[in-house]
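Hi R.,

Here's the chain you asked about this morning:
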Amino acid sequence: MSAVPLTTAPVDRPRQTRWLLRLHRPALYTWAALWLLLAALLVALDGPLLDAAAQSWRQFRACGMTERCDYDQDAILRYKDCYDYATIALNVLPFLVAAWAGAALTGRELESGTARLAWTQATSPARWLAVRLAVPALGVAVCTGLLSWLHHRAWAAGQGRIDSAKEWYDRFTLHAGGPVVVALALAGLAAGALAGLLLRRTLLALVVGVLVTGAVRGLADLALPHLWPPVTRLSTLDQGFLGDGLVVDQGMVTRSGAHVPPPSCDSTASCEAAYAHFTGRYNTYHPVSHLWGLQLTTTALVLAVAGLLVAGCFLALRRQTGPLRPADD
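And here is the predicted structure, written out as tokens:
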């Protein structure tokens, strides 16, 4: 592919930023509205919704075994539903960012030809891409970071007060209440931008950006339990598995001290025969004290992947335009 001539009439960065914000004003307004709605919901989960549900749970526990129990079940269900909605929304957010980045941030401009027009008349390709990555990345990081902080506060406030509160290692709660979701959102931004640069088709870039973000999320899910040293607790056969947390591995301890998977058996006699060769059980898991260690190491991994995707963006742009050098000041 022939190189695109670089700009001869440079535009300063503040003007490029203003133009980018004006161009994507509908997306900016939609993002602001959704952010305010989700933030308000998370604040309510740490306030009136929590207080009403906690009061109902106290009333329920006070009932004991009596047949008649006067408590506000609607308050409990309302809190549960709102928590689930907020948690799912935060988990979906990186995919929305990827879809927007692939469809609107790069894909649409390359498909329509406005990007090439900007490269020849207003700004260099390198600066064009840098602004389109840096400005949304700043907004995504700040807004998503605030939402994840509010989510963690809401979750922590419910511990000990809401009997049906999610455990810290719940898959969706774990990702929503820490910096991992911020890193995933940035990876989604980079994945969508790269898809748009490579495919130069709005709809196709949207789909591919979302799929790549899903792959990064899957990688994070698989790697997370192994990025921090787990704890192993031994127990007797009668005790069962000891330790509460994110399970990494569970199994049986042989007479020689080896750790093996639990045996499969389909009858009482076969189970008794199989378990007769074991002396105890082992449980390898992460306790709650490992929460932030797991969060930070997984965040570092996802950010590294996001960095590779950003590098891929500039390499893809270089392939289309030739050497990327900044416009003359």
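One quick note: Residues 171 and 221 are 8 Å apart (CA to CA).

Cheers,
M.
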